[in-house]
Design goal:
Rossmann fold; Chemotaxis protein chec; 25% strand; alpha/beta; 10 helices
Length: 301
């Protein structure tokens, strides 16, 4: 099967490719494009793939523009969005333009197995009721467990191409010099909070954005995460969020990010303080430094 993965984030393209391979979908021929314009050029040069997986927000030609352009001449090629957002209006717009599905980041192999056809003769896998499906489905009693840090180390290394070390550390508290990413799951009594220190935000953001190590110290001194780092930092938050693995078909979807200097709403901070389960670690990135991260499983209301 020929698959074209379209995303302006190199890290996210690598994650999509890695997860597709984990989904055991048979022999795959995967090509990558950095935006819609690049995707159209690759299609013109090499022909239409069997499936296109595209981000929504990209420079030059975004995912929706790419879809509409393709549908002008091809009504049958399978097209799906893999994106941070998955609101009802967005799904409606995507479906009206000709998209088959929307998978919301962070995703799992189950999400791809639910929408990508299995190779002939392969055993069927029950469809996931996660982000590729309509929201609102109840989630049964779920056992939540943290993924091994060694697995996350491997993923981060494959994306950043720098040595990564992870070790236990003291808990982080909420404050203005930290980023807080909030993840929710339809029907779950829990939400997930990823609290990331400013030094770690800057380190992973700079490393993935191929910025110099000096920009990390500049960010720390200014007590802000520059826009140039934020998208890649969010992608890394999604990797961190995948460290908690509910043993069910649904999983957590990012609902908000509060950057250093932005107050965390009281209704969120009060829930974070009631965490039922937590993981507190220190992450170092070769040449860039690092900082603390706390993952907290909290009541959702």
């Amino acid at each position: 099967m020929k698959i074209l993965v379209v995303d302006d984030s190199q890290m996210m393209r690598m994650l999509v490719v890695r997860t597709l391979k984990q989904a055991e979908l048979g022999e795959l021929e995967i090509q990558e494009a950095i935006n819609g314009r690049d995707a159209l050029a690759k299609i013109a040069a090499g022909g239409m793939p069997d499936l296109i997986l595209s981000d929504w927000n990209m420079p030059e030609v975004n995912g929706l523009q790419l879809l509409k352009t393709i549908r002008e001449t091809d009504k049958t090629v399978r097209f799906g969005f893999v994106t941070t957002e998955g609101t009802g209006p967005m799904r409606t717009i995507a479906a009206a333009a000709g998209a088959e599905f929307v998978i919301v980041k962070p995703f799992t192999a189950k999400d791809f197995r639910a929408v990508v056809p299995k190779p002939s003769g392969a055993a069927a896998t029950p469809a996931a009721s996660g982000p590729a499906q309509a929201s609102g489905a109840a989630v049964p009693s779920v056992d939540y467990s943290f993924a091994p840090s060694a697995e996350v180390t491997h993923v981060l290394f494959s994306l950043i191409k720098k040595q990564i070390s992870i070790k236990p550390d003291a808990p982080l508290t909420l404050g203005d010099a930290k980023a807080v990413a909030v993840y929710r799951m339809d029907g779950s009594p829990f939400m997930l909070a990823c609290v990331c220190s400013l030094p770690l935000c800057a380190s992973v953001g700079a490393a993935l954005s191929l910025l110099s190590a000096s920009t990390v110290q500049e960010a720390i001194a200014s007590r802000t995460v520059p826009e140039a780092m934020r998208k890649n930092a969010v992608d890394v938050f999604n990797v961190f969020a995948s460290m908690i693995e509910p043993k069910a078909s649904a999983h957590f979807v990012q609902s908000a990010v509060y950057w250093p200097g932005t107050p965390v709403p009281k209704e969120v901070s009060s829930l974070v303080l009631q965490a039922k389960k937590r993981l507190d670690i220190h992450i170092d990135v070769e040449d860039y430094g690092g900082g603390k991260l706390s993952l907290l499983l909290c009541p959702s209301a």
